[in-house]
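Entry type: protein chain
Record version: 2
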Amino acid sequence: MPKKRLNLLLLALGIVPLLFWTFQYINVDLWYDEVYSLQNFVLTSLSDTLFTYPLPNNHVFFNLTSQIISRLFGIRNINSLAENVWVFRLFQLFITIAIAIYTVKICRQIFKLEFYFLSLVILFTCIPFLNFSLQLRGYNLSSLFFIMLLFHSWKFIKDYGKYQIPIIITTSLLLLYTIPSNIYLLVTLLLIITMIFGVNIRRKSIAVKKYKQLILFISSGILLAIILYLPILKDIVSNKFASQTNDDVFHSLKLIPQLSTAFLSKRFFLVPLVFGGIYLLVRQSDQDRKNIYLVLISIFLIPFILSFFHQKLVIDRVFIPLNPVFTLIVVIPIAYLFQFIKNRNFFAFVSVIFAICCLVNFYFEKNKIGTQVESDLLKLGQLDQSIYQNYYLADIFQPENAISSIIDKYRHLPIYMYKQMDYPSNAFYLAVNGLNYTYLEKLEELETKFIESDSIVVLTSLKAEVLNETRNFDKIKSQTLTTINGFTNVILLQKK
């Protein structure tokens, strides 16, 4: 099979999971963090976006872009927001595509891989990457700025024009201005460049001088971000989350195998291929390619080590921007291994089978995760929220549909939330429909509520538990209004 045709086939196979994901989630209901961010930092004034930081939820530059989108499309209240969630998610899709383009560019231009679209097969069958691909938070945008910074830094070192300089400064600035914890990534890059500069300092080459200049440009971007952060800098460094320390001293280091496993996404057949490719890379590749690959591994590992020395509490999603780097670490040795297959037809066959294996694994793993999330919630009352398993991507997460079941016939009744997980998303869709609610800490409080009304409506995630508790009340009967046992269940309670 000709090289161009095989690359196009790998491209076509690679984008299948992203198309599938987009079709399913482009207009999915908003969840806790998205609701909080959009209501407090987007559907507000620009000053709220830029100059308030009550919690780390304010990913400033991301919320600024969302603020601009909301103004351009006239989405300035919760009703128009609920109807046009897809507009914001579409912007995230463009960011995801841009990340993919830069991943391919690194494979093609830096590592000189012939079949560079293998990277898309691996990137788009990675569960955590797709989990964040449409999410209305700053992690996807951070991934883009980081992979751009890596690419354009390399281009600058290789003397591909001075126009790289403003890109390097801007991506450094915006990477930090999107999420403060991205400082781990920037310091990592500065450390690596400094070490390379130190090793080669005695060489009088233009490239050595460029390492020194690169340090200056990235540092300038960091400084500019800090200047922009000045009005809220105190809140950033001293909020209750930033001040928390790890109970487990080795927590950050333990995240390395956890995130590596998540990024691998149960594609265990990749492991022997990666090690086989690394062996050939070390034995037969040129020194420059080996050095760059070693730099990639260092870029992936050092942020965790910095976090370990920092000893502040970090959660797994802080390191989501490393996902494309992990993809490169995996795809480069595999592509290098495949290139040793001399027969082109057999090479094409192996590449396509590889891609199909990744797609099949993705399909079954996604369904397995959905089943697990539903089981954890409905049987254990446990809410899954990690980079790998997210309750808000499960089929049972449909707060808008659940609430629509009470809009016409029961909107006049008092509405209560009890044992309702992610109550902000439910509160949001209640407000969209002009409905008020009260949150109950204990079901016993309901007895006094029947003085005001003979019937009340209860929203809950734990339907079985709540129905069981209502059986303790002799004068109350219950009826479930929602048709499926989901994340938001609507129960009608009436006096007998």
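Comment: The beta strands are 415-418, 438-440, 455-460, 476-480, 489-495.
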